[in-house]
Amino acid sequence: MKVEIEESKLQTAYANACDGVKDFMESLFGKKVFEAAKPTLDDYKTIRTYEDACKALGEPIFEDPNNLPNHIIALMKLETISRALWGRNFQPKPDGEGSKVYWYPWFALWTKKEVEDMNPEQRGALLSANATNGASAGFGYLDATYRSSSAHAYVGFRLCQETEEKAKYFGQQFIELWAEYLKFNFTVGNRLK
């Protein structure tokens, strides 16, 4: 009998296994298969869990002695994960001139079918709402609302990433934490494996 396992699924299982199971998996498949699975600041895709982020950063796992609300704990975990995803060499800095672009995970609260079923007026309102406040992450952006421009910071900079790809990974891989942080009453879609 032959059993085939995708390497990414094997590495995910390894990352979530206890030490005894990890030893068994290493003896069965060899250590080299799992080297990429170890969390590192050099490859953001090795950060698959909050615990991976803590391990990569060399920080202890947060334990709540004060019984904080779940959305606050989720935010604290997301901030730790964000720092790990930034990697070893990236140091985000405020840019008062607005010349740097940072990316924030955005979430669709409508299914594709719900958007397709909207009448043109509803879909137009949805798109215009996004156009009004698009690109509003970070320390400021231009918005011709009341004067020629104004500065706003609608989302937490500490949860932004330096590339669109990383922001998408951050949102998809950690969707349960985002849902807990945002406290919406929605069902969580697919997570990256």
Strand content: under 5%
Low-pLDDT runs:
128-144
Which structural class matches the secondary elements? mainly alpha
- The residue-averaged pLDDT reads 78
Summarize the structure.
With 193 residues, the protein is an all-alpha fold. The protein is built from 9 helices and no strands. 46% of the residues lie in helices and 0% in strands.
Descriptive overview:
The chain has 193 residues and is mainly α. The protein has two domains: 1-38, no CATH class; 39-111 and 155-182, no CATH class. Helix content is 46%, strand content 0%. It contains nine helices and no strands. The chain has helices at residues 7-16, 19-29, 32-35, 50-57, 70-86, 112-117, 120-133, 164-173, 175-182. Helix 4 packs across helix 5 (70-86) and helix 5 packs across helix 9. The longest helix has 17 residues, at 70-86. The chain is globular, with a radius of gyration of 20 Å. The two termini are 26 Å apart. 18% of the residues are buried. Mean pLDDT is 78; it is low at 128-144.
Question: Helices and strands in order, then pairings?
Answer:
Layout: H1 7-16, H2 19-29, H3 32-35, H4 50-57, H5 70-86, H6 112-117, H7 120-133, H8 164-173, H9 175-182
Can you give keywords for this protein?
193 residues, 2 domains, mainly alpha, globular, 9 helices, 0% strand
